[in-house]
Amino acid sequence: MTSDTTSASPADAVKSYLLDLQARIIAALGQYENKPFSTDSWQRAEGGGGISRIIEEGKVLERGGVGFSHVMGKNLPPTAAANRPEIAGRQWEAMGVSLVMHPRNPYAPTVHMNVRFFTATAEGQAPVWWFGGGLDLTPYYGFEEDVEHFHRTCRDALAPFDSDADKATERALYPRFKRWCDDYFYLKHRQEPRGVGGIFFDDFNQLGFEQSFAMMQSVGNAFIPAYTPILARRMDLPYGENERDFQAYRRGRYVEFNLVYDRGTLFGLQSGGRTESILMSMPPVVKWRYDWRPAAGTPEAKLYSDFLIHREWV
């Protein structure tokens, strides 16, 4: 899907794409389920609103949410201006789709994706706009073919937007955005990655509006082919209480990252966002243990030794 700004404003074109993306993702994931995603439409007092599509206690997805939001405000929160301090305090408008899926089966990985468009304005000054987003995978039991497929799909989504000079170099978008993802989804207090990464970008406008928007669309469109084949392969594998216990333990890392580091979560809470929609990413069952490590030679230990490491997957 590409943008058409001849008949709509740039913001309208982005909003139309995001609503369509939300609907397509719900349709793609819904084929595995025995119940529909619920719909929760909401309004924000300061301006704007959104649509949260949620599933809980599904056959395949223990909890998942695909949220669309289009919100605005008069005073840009500090988290949104972290890389551009000169625009702090401006009026702002943000729209995006964000999702997290927590499958019931421990062999099926958690996945996160978001794509967003941000504009900050001030009287007498040119608007500042950018795109951001990405997708990343958090397995509990690693399968190399799954991670390679996920990264290959991410790479292929970005390849059309590389200049000829940048192709096959570290300046290409995939290696840049992969490093950004590895650095961003890292729990500094644990000194470990949250998962096996993917791609992540923010404050992106380098290609001009049309091509930057097209790149964001390519990233959003990559989610379904990147994740659904993995989910289909793993969702019916047999498992026991040991695997569920380890899944709950590792989900604790997901909670820690989202509440301590995640820029989107912090922006949402700082801007007076809707708490239920912001925290729909939280897993339903989580455990913590004091100073615990898996026994050497176990499948649980392999997650740490073979997957939660810096690695080039494609």
TrEMBL record:
<comment type="function">
    <text>Involved in the heme biosynthesis. Catalyzes the aerobic oxidative decarboxylation of propionate groups of rings A and B of coproporphyrinogen-III to yield the vinyl groups in protoporphyrinogen-IX.</text>
</comment>
<feature type="binding site">
    <location>
        <begin position="114"/>
        <end position="116"/>
    </location>
    <ligand>
        <name>substrate</name>
    </ligand>
</feature>
<dbReference type="GO" id="GO:0004109">
    <property type="term" value="F:coproporphyrinogen oxidase activity"/>
</dbReference>
<dbReference type="InterPro" id="IPR036406">
    <property type="entry name" value="Coprogen_oxidase_aer_sf"/>
</dbReference>
<dbReference type="InterPro" id="IPR018375">
    <property type="entry name" value="Coprogen_oxidase_CS"/>
</dbReference>
<feature type="site" description="Important for dimerization">
    <location>
        <position position="189"/>
    </location>
</feature>
<comment type="subunit">
    <text>Homodimer.</text>
</comment>
<feature type="binding site">
    <location>
        <position position="151"/>
    </location>
    <ligand>
        <name>a divalent metal cation</name>
    </ligand>
</feature>
<feature type="binding site">
    <location>
        <position position="98"/>
    </location>
    <ligand>
        <name>substrate</name>
    </ligand>
</feature>
<protein>
    <recommendedName>
        <fullName>Oxygen-dependent coproporphyrinogen-III oxidase</fullName>
        <ecNumber>1.3.3.3</ecNumber>
    </recommendedName>
</protein>
<keyword id="KW-0560">Oxidoreductase</keyword>
<comment type="similarity">
    <text>Belongs to the aerobic coproporphyrinogen-III oxidase family.</text>
</comment>
<feature type="binding site">
    <location>
        <position position="102"/>
    </location>
    <ligand>
        <name>a divalent metal cation</name>
    </ligand>
</feature>
<keyword id="KW-0627">Porphyrin biosynthesis</keyword>
<feature type="binding site">
    <location>
        <position position="189"/>
    </location>
    <ligand>
        <name>a divalent metal cation</name>
    </ligand>
</feature>
<feature type="binding site">
    <location>
        <position position="112"/>
    </location>
    <ligand>
        <name>a divalent metal cation</name>
    </ligand>
</feature>
<dbReference type="Pfam" id="PF01218">
    <property type="entry name" value="Coprogen_oxidas"/>
</dbReference>
<feature type="active site" description="Proton donor">
    <location>
        <position position="112"/>
    </location>
</feature>
<comment type="pathway">
    <text>Porphyrin-containing compound metabolism; protoporphyrin-IX biosynthesis; protoporphyrinogen-IX from coproporphyrinogen-III (O2 route): step 1/1.</text>
</comment>
<feature type="binding site">
    <location>
        <begin position="272"/>
        <end position="274"/>
    </location>
    <ligand>
        <name>substrate</name>
    </ligand>
</feature>
<keyword id="KW-0479">Metal-binding</keyword>
<keyword id="KW-0350">Heme biosynthesis</keyword>
<feature type="region of interest" description="Important for dimerization">
    <location>
        <begin position="254"/>
        <end position="289"/>
    </location>
</feature>
<dbReference type="InterPro" id="IPR001260">
    <property type="entry name" value="Coprogen_oxidase_aer"/>
</dbReference>
<keyword id="KW-0963">Cytoplasm</keyword>
